[in-house]
From TrEMBL:
Protein's organism: Streptomyces yaizuensis
Signal peptide (UniProt feature, chain positions): none
Protein name: NDP-hexose 2,3-dehydratase family protein
Residue span, dTDP-4-dehydro-6-deoxy-alpha-D-glucopyranose 2,3-dehydratase domain: 42-249, 264-466
Region (Disordered): 1-20
Length: 478
């Protein structure tokens, strides 16, 4: 197999502009184009239904003893693949102090966590068709999706997959992203995965343009950003990996200013990272406190948070036609929301500097609310996540955006969250956010997605949805 590392770049002979302003104009044109050259937006559902009928898809829950090629490791109890590749389920012990000297409130917990050191590729191929950028989206089956098949990036693969550790077929079109042409890269950044379920997991989020004639492939279609934006208003349609890549696109920012300057925003965020002391260590899965293991699930003793389960999969259009694997199954539907407010005539969203045990750098910018409400139902109102009740009780007139989106279907079983943008009028956050929260513009968040580990994956999904708000029913961008 050829090396995945290309030749070193040639010595430059001239300078070029540091930023391609024309690229933002091309992105804006694609976002404004609601009719694609190859597939009408209203026909996407029918195409996905046809692709479901074209292949055999089946996912069944099985007991752990029926996992093939997976085993509980002797001594540690860690759930590992016999190849040593793909991923493992181990234990994580987290101790968090909220305070600059470790003198604030202390949280201490243990849980199962996914260990996956490989950096995967999430890549969307772009091409100018009839003068408008189109993006090659894939109808991809993932075992954890509630409807199995959703709209996905052109390439969505771990290193184990695209180096064929599974012994299956090649990942289609992966060479555009393993060895990208530097002059054709639109976006390329390492971004985090869910810090509550992965330990320091990153994926390479990429958009690469091509002028090549791509062979017609049944499971792929070219769509404009305007078409994808409309589809983001539909439940369980655009998958998580596509959403995070789309959030990294270099949209233009036409707003005149922000409540915080960029320097002030970065200084506040750096202070938030500095004041959180989060210490994480891996522990044997068999020793994780507060969790119990049965024949077909590892679950929390009080029935909250999530379960580790096993599934058997058949998929006619994947690199391997059948396999078994563990998945994480959350308990209950999540709520992920930005409070939205106009400040000086400029739309802002309320971000939360959120610490999670699996983050690479302690804190990332998260939505105003991010939780599974059922995990907090037993708590008094004062101990529930800030703004949760305000979001749950918001009348329809204050909801600017809402849709139910699936989380990553390759590792999570039926993990779904209701994503919302809610007008903040009438809440105590309107002008004076509490510590750990700040008002920022969507344009500032878009600028931060050019860098890794600033926005968490839930915030990136909401950012992609905010970019899509003008394309949905009623319009009105945030």
């Amino acid at each position: 197999m050829s090396s995945c590392i290309g030749p070193p770049p040639a010595a430059p002979t001239a300078v070029r502009p540091r930023e391609d302003r024309e690229q933002a104009e091309r992105i804006a044109l694609s976002a404004a184009t609601r009719h694609g050259a190859h597939l009408r937006t209203e026909d996407v559902h029918a195409w996905l239904a046809e692709r479901r009928r074209a292949h055999v898809f089946q996912v069944d829950r099985v007991p752990f003893e029926e996992l093939d090629a997976w085993r509980f490791e002797r001594g540690t109890g860690n759930l590992v693949h016999r190849s040593g590749r793909f991923f493992a389920v181990e234990g994580m012990h987290v101790v968090e102090h909220d305070g600059p000297y470790g003198d604030g409130p202390r949280r201490d917990w243990q849980q199962p966590v996914i260990i996956q050191s490989e950096v995967g590729i999430l890549g969307i191929l772009g091409k100018e068709i009839d003068g408008v950028l189109h993006f090659l989206m894939q109808a991809k089956m993932e075992p954890g999706n509630i409807n199995l098949l959703q709209l996905s990036p052109t390439v969505q693969a771990t290193r184990s997959n695209y180096t064929r550790a599974h012994g299956g077929t090649d990942v289609k079109l992966v060479d555009y992203f393993v060895r990208p042409d530097r002059d054709r890269v639109i976006a390329d950044v390492l971004q985090s995965e869910q810090g509550a379920w992965f330990l320091r997991k990153s994926n390479r989020n990429m958009v690469v343009e091509t002028a090549d004639d791509i062979p017609a492939l049944d499971d792929f279609r070219w769509l404009t950003l305007g078409q994808i934006a409309e589809l983001l208003h539909h439940d369980d349609l655009v998958n998580m990996n596509a959403r995070t890549v789309l959030s990294c696109l270099p949209y233009r920012d036409t707003t005149p200013g922000a409540a915080l300057s960029d320097v002030q925003l970065l200084s506040w965020f750096t202070g938030e990272r500095s004041r959180h002391d989060v210490r994480v260590r891996r522990v044997p899965l068999a020793s994780v406190r507060g969790w119990k293991q049965g024949a077909d699930a590892i679950e929390h003793e009080e029935g909250r948070h999530f379960r580790v389960v096993a599934v058997s999969v058949k998929a006619g259009n994947r690199e391997v036609a059948g396999w078994t694997q563990p998945l994480i199954e959350p308990v209950g539907l999540g709520i992920v929301a930005f409070l939205v407010h106009d400040i000086g005539g400029v739309p802002h969203v309320l971000v939360h500097a959120r610490a999670e045990g699996g983050f690479l750098d302690t804190v990332e910018l998260a939505p105003t609310v991010q939780c599974a409400p059922g995990n907090h139902a037993h708590l008094p109102p004062a101990d529930r996540p800030p703004f949760l009740d305000a979001v749950l009780s918001a009348p329809r007139s204050r909801i600017r955006y809402q849709a139910v989106h699936s989380e990553e279907g390759g590792r999570f079983l039926h993990a779904r969250s209701r994503y919302l943008a809610v007008d903040a009028d009438g809440t105590r956050a309107a002008l004076d956010p509490p510590p750990g929260y700040a008002w920022v513009t969507p344009g500032q968040l878009r600028a931060l997605t050019r860098h890794g580990h600033y926005l968490n994956v839930e915030a990136r999904t909401l950012l992609a949805c905010i970019n899509a708000m003008a394309a949905g029913p009623g319009g009105g961008a945030a």
